[in-house]
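Figure caption, in words: inputs first, then the predicted bound structure.
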Amino acid sequence: MTDPSNTSTDSLHLERARHLDAAAMEVRTVPQLTLTDADLSIDAAYTIQRALIACRVARGARRAGMKMGLTSLAKMAQVGVHEPIYGHLTSDMLLADGGTLTRAHYGHPRAEPEIAFLMARDLQGEVSEAEALAAVAGVMPALEVIDSRYADFKFKLEDVVADNASSCRFVVGCRVTPLRDLYPQGLSLKNLGMVLEVDGVVVHTGSSAAILDDPARSLTTLLRMLATRDEGLRAGDIVLAGAATPAVPLSPGQHVRVRVDGLGSAELFVA
Ligand code: OOG
Ligand code: MG
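Bound structure (magnesium ion present):
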């Protein structure tokens, strides 16, 4: 028999997910969940996140992959949350390289420079960095556009997890570089220079080393976190490893580009 207390917890998670989903659709903010529920657990927050993704899937979105967030000190410092988190990427979040994002469709969008993995095959469980990279088809430069459903990007760990790690849109460069193509150029995934430009002006520079010392570690951390729910990555998934520098606020008229050593670039326009 179903435990009635679990049923009411489930419906509370669903209600919160719908509340966050509606806020995103209607371009408005909501109060932090932890203001009214100081005991909200991280586990419950990830359950809310999954219910939020189910709302998108019910509208026709498909799984596109996963993202890690707060994997660099720069990002942790920017939002005051000091633990890596993950979120889900869906097909409706993908913006074509060079595509245009309409500023008015979002609350307070920010762009950040990232590296993305393309998974060649399914992978689940605790694996080494080398084992994780063996399942990767290649890497791409990426821009993530984040947009928090909480005013001023102010949230606690549990709030941002429930809000799908502030996911909004993402762009990946059109070239997928196999890792073996980096080594002959004397490049390593562990230390690729990354530049974020707005209107051709460099606004942040960083290195892939800022992402948990090695973006591959972001991948293995994600797999370890997913394993606690018996989940993993699937062939064709795109995985964003997390931003290497702080995010920049977006305004209409801007052209934003990330350039990564050996990987090329990814860009978007803001209307
Ligand atoms: C949380 C999402 C962080 C990253 O790359 O670090 C993130 C936020 O900053 O609102 O996507
Ligand atoms: Mg990000």
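Residues 60 and 92 are 9 Å apart (CA to CA).
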